[in-house]
Amino acid sequence: MYNTFYTYINMRSLILISFVILGTLGIAQENTANYWYFGYQCGISFATGVPKGVTGGQITGLEGCATVGDMQGNLLFYTDGQVVYDRNHNIMENGTGLMGHYSSTQSSIIVKCPGTDNNYYLFTTDGAENHLAGGWRYSIVDMSLNGGLGAVTEVKNIFLEGPVAEKQTAIMHSNNVSIWVIAHRWNSNEFVAYEITQEGINPVPVVSAVGTVHAGGPSGDPNLNGWTNATGLLKANKDGNKLALAIQITGIFELFDFNKATGVVSNCRTSSTYDPVYGVEFSPDGTKLYATVNVYQNSRLYQFNLNQTNPFSNAVLIASAPSCPIKSLQLGPNGRIYITRYDYPYVSEVSYPDLDGDACNYVAHGVYLMGETGRYGLPNIFYYKGFRFFTGSEQTISICEGDSIYLEGAYQHEAGTFTDTL
After folding, report:
1. pLDDT at site 21
2. 22 pLDDT tier (thresholds 50, 70, 90)
3. Band of the pLDDT at 383, cuts 50, 70, 90?
4. I want to staple 39 with a disulfide (CB 3.0 to 4.6 A). Which of 303, 310, 375, 412 is the partner?
5. pLDDT tens-digit series, residues 29-51
6. Under a CB-based contact definition with an 8 Å cutoff, are residues 358 and 352 in contact?
7. CB atoms < 10 A from the CB of 74, how many?
8. Burial of 43 (0-12, 13-18, 19+ CB in 10 A)
9. pLDDT for the residue 417
10. pLDDT tens digits, 82-113
11. CA–CA dist 211, 159 (Å, integer)
């Protein structure tokens, strides 16, 4: 999928290389997450490097959604797990009838098929409202069809397994080619990790029995009573070696290790019990975990320091919201964390999530949503190998006469050509 070569730079005199340039290159790399569509017709564009609200999105669902773009940052398609929309915001050919649920926490995630240019797996999860009956399924989108607008192929709603909770995420395999897709079985403490290779999905999952059983959960709604613990996010850190999740009514967060070579989940650490919980997200450097608590009223956003022996021992309150409750969290392509709040005309922001406490800089009015309002969910995004956050940070390297260097990364040397090293 990637060609590797080394270009050595021999210098005759002292020069300075500014990584502001590389930060700019980052915008032209794997910017598959430039466009987000979510909430009630909400949208955000990161295309210029500065997030701004955009209109035109067709999603009106309550929770889960997913978006994907090409490597140049152009929107390809997006979904709420039931309907797929193309880049022109029209329903994609054969794009209705997917068996996700508009109120599943992570109703969908989109993963490019390894070794292909045009095909994408779209995984869906059913919702607690439907008692998770539809299970975990996948469809394939072929972007070469319908004049480049794409179409859902005849490989549609293929049952993978079930029932599973409303949780799913993806992690790049240690071989940097295959991909793990990960979910959690219902009425079980078992994670399931399926490996996607260039040949397809391995039908035999890696099963890890670790942590709390995901089951039950009371509700005043008779239809949801006994199912609400299916709700809550499952996230991986940027390095792909940690997982975190929320179990809503039980009111706990859990942190795990993940082996990218084997797909095994291990080493569970469990938080104290909180009021109903929902969102989790890692900081870009993996040292902090952000989590949302009491998500129905008087909600709160906490930061946990993962460098501590007990990472949940010292929760730091970052923000509280007596109205328009704080819901989902998602790391953006600029290295900042974005927070949706129910019926709120802005997406809130943690500007510097690697920093401790108040230094992380919570901004309630992060991005104006152009008159639309958020709901529970933000797009479920898989950051591919080679993705570089365009933070605009600067670093200076001194290179003396006679020195040689190579710079690692996924850099674009010419249109459409990406390599591991420069």
Report:
1. 33
2. very low
3. confident
4. 375
5. 458 999 999 999 999 999 998 99
6. no
7. 13
8. buried
9. 33
10. 999 999 999 999 999 999 999 999 999 999 99
11. 25
Structure tokens at 91: 């329903």
**Confidence label for 382 from pLDDT (cuts 50, 70 and 90):** very high
